[in-house]
Amino acid sequence: GPSGWTDADMLIGSSPGADVRLTPVQSRAQFSLWVVMAAPLMLGTSMAQISAFDIETYSNVEAIRINQDPLARPGRVVQSNCPPYPKLEISVGKDGTPHFTIAGRVSQGVRCGAHSAASCAECSQGHGKEWCNGDCKWSGSSPTSGKCVQGVAVEEKPGAFALGSERSQDKRECQQIWVKDLQGGDLALAAINWASSASKMIVPLSKMVKWPAAETLAHDLWNNGTLLQVWSSGSEAILILELPALGGNALLRLRHRGTTTSMADHPRSAAATSIGVLEEGDANTGINLVHVCMASSLLFFVAMLSRRYLCILAHRWWKRAR
Description:
- The protein is an alpha+beta fold and 322 residues long.
- The chain has helices spanning 24-37, 52-58, 61-67, 283-321; strands at 76-80, 88-92, 98-102, 110-111, 116-117, 136-140, 146-150, 175-181, 187-193, 199-204, 216-220, 226-227, 231-233, 236-243, 248-256.
- It contains four helices and 15 strands.
- Helix 1 (24-37) runs parallel beside helix 2 and helix 1 runs parallel beside helix 3.
- The termini are far apart.
């Protein structure tokens, strides 16, 4: 909320030319999650090479409206069949230093230098200290008398928050639904299919909305706010979402049929489900966004050059003063 925001880092995007990029489907899935998590929307892509698809994604007016909703509620998982991720325990020392501990055993293996092993105890393989390097260190009075032990705690490693053992595809054959409460009573919903095959997801509305589920209007924000079919029987109501593999996603705004506000009262979403150009009338939004980001990037570049120039001058002055 206002006293602390979920900072999930940069949006990677799918534009060509980047060292790291996602597929178009995955980049839109990432944006959908960032929107519902109320995370800062910072682009980690070159504005000079950004694709039309990414512009459509990042200039979706209705999606940004959800991210910036005045209620400022964080997103939460309401449905998931994914295996649990290791929990992170956070504490603060007497001197104010933060401490991070990964709860439970994490079996991700270790780097022993030129080779790897399941644990530091297996690094040496009978060769003593010479084979105990990398993540491990030698504990003993001589190169042959002792044992190979953990040298760097898992929490202190670069990428400790992206454990390889927890990112294997077999642990991502699953789906999730995230929701975010909005001002006025609406509900934002993001559904993600992480699996390597397409999935038909059933969304039980009666467990998510506060109004009679059968009276739900479900707007598809990646398809210009199109209303989705709500299937109901008595007090029960569901949505059926067919999501493609490896990042297939949906971003919806759910509202009660009886509310006075409608999607028509807001600017039309610029999103499209296929790669293409922006809708006429919405193009200015995307173009303005690009201009702002390009100007920000240019200012940052100039600031870095100025800083480097001043450092060089200060270094020369210091050498002369000596």
